Each structure stands twice: as C-alpha cells, then as structure tokens.
C-alpha cells in the first residue's frame, strides 16, 4: 500500500433496518465517496465492506470501509484494516454522527475525547490512541426528553431528508479536503456553520 493512501471508515450499524438512521450517516458518506470513485464494496476478511478508489486520476488513494459489526464493536475491523494496509492512526479518517453539532454542520478534528460515541471509543481503544482524524457530521440534539440512544437509532425526519444529500455531499468533500490539503486548511473551510460558508 503506497504511503499516500488513506483509510476512511464510515461508522454505522449493519442491516437494512438501520440504513436510514442518524447513527448511520458516516456510512452514508463512504457510500457517497464510493459512488464518486466508481468503486464497489466487497466483503473483506477483516469484517468490513471495503472499496478502493482515487478522488481523481492519479490522485489520492482511498480505502473506504464500512464495518459489518455493530457500532460499539467498530474497533476490531478498523484495527484489522489498519494492520492489513499498514496504515498508522493518523492515516485513518473516521466519519461519524455527532449529537453536539447542529444538523447540517460539520467539524473536523484529530484526537480528543469520544464524546460518548461508542464507535469512536472502541476504535481508540483498539488502535491504542485517540489521535486519528475525524469528520463529525452534525445530527443535533434530541427534542424534549427523548433519550439520545433512541434518537440516534431513528431515521432522519422528512425535512432533514431533504437536506441530507447536501450534508452527505459536504462531508464527502471534507474527507477529500482533509486528505488532500491537511487538517488546518480543511478545518478553515468546513468548521464554520454551513450558513456562513
């Protein structure tokens, strides 16, 4: 695997019953990237669906991964893929939903806490470090007293679904910018609220 490769992990739960859940927006982003790259996911021995492609002819090489484990066990396939492709944590971009960011906004960062996200927590535990880049896709807080655990396992509302393609497209662009430009320039472009970008 060449040194310029990036592993992009879209977090979610496997199975059609979860496909439209807020918790699965990370997986929607890697699906969008695979579509752009003309790549197809195949089952990999590490327990993830994997697709490989480039953002442009001769451009950056991406390994897109959708773990086939449940969210709280995401670390095992990610650790196995990192080993298989000989990639360090700093070349692994994890795309995941984020309750503490308004719906429609993105935040990019490297390292830090897991913010209660079980998938991120498990990946950090298996890799032995939290120092991997993340594209955090805002889904907002649950309304009223609805528990967060229930909220993330619900589908997006009809109003949100109208905006979802734009959000997923922005997140896919942010992944490419992070890999091609580096964290700081990508943050300058994407960490502002969408209304001010």
From TrEMBL:
Chain positions recorded as tRNA binding sites: 18, 70, 72, 118
Transmembrane segments: none
Residues annotated as the enzyme's active site: 23 (proton acceptor)
Predominant cellular place of this UniProt entry's protein: cytoplasm
UniProt keyword annotations, A-Z: Cytoplasm, Hydrolase, RNA-binding, tRNA-binding
Molecular functions (GO terms): peptidyl-tRNA hydrolase activity; tRNA binding
EC assignment: 3.1.1.29
Keyword hit for Mitochondrion: no
Catalyses which reaction(s): an N-acyl-L-alpha-aminoacyl-tRNA + H2O = an N-acyl-L-amino acid + a tRNA + H(+)
InterPro entries to which the protein is assigned, alphabetical: Pept_tRNA_hydro, Pept_tRNA_hydro_CS, Pept_tRNA_hydro_sf
Its biological purpose: Hydrolyzes ribosome-free peptidyl-tRNAs (with 1 or more amino acids incorporated), which drop off the ribosome during protein synthesis, or as a result of ribosome stalling.
NCBIfam families: pth
Protein name: Peptidyl-tRNA hydrolase
Taxonomic lineage: Bacteria, Bacillati, Actinomycetota, Actinomycetes, Micrococcales
């Amino acid at each position: 695997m060449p040194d310029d490769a990036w592993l992009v992990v879209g977090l979610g739960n496997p199975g059609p019953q979860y496909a439209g859940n807020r918790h699965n927006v990370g997986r929607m982003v890697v699906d969008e990237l695979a579509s752009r790259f003309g790549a197809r996911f195949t089952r990999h021995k590490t327990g993830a669906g994997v697709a490989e492609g480039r953002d442009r002819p001769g451009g950056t090489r991406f390994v897109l991964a959708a773990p086939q484990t449940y969210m709280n066990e995401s670390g095992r396939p990610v650790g196995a893929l990192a080993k298989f492709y000989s990639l360090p944590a700093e070349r692994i971009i994890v795309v995941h939903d984020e309750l503490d960011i308004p719906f429609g906004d993105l935040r990019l960062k490297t390292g830090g806490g897991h913010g209660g996200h079980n998938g991120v927590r498990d990946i950090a535990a298996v890799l032995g470090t939290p120092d991997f880049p993340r594209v955090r896709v805002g889904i907002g807080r649950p309304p009223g007293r609805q528990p967060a655990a229930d909220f993330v396992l619900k589908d997006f509302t009809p109003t949100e679904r109208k905006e979802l393609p734009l959000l997923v497209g922005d997140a896919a662009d942010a992944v490419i910018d992070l890999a091609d430009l580096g964290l700081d320039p990508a943050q300058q472009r994407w960490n502002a609220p969408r209304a001010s970008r």
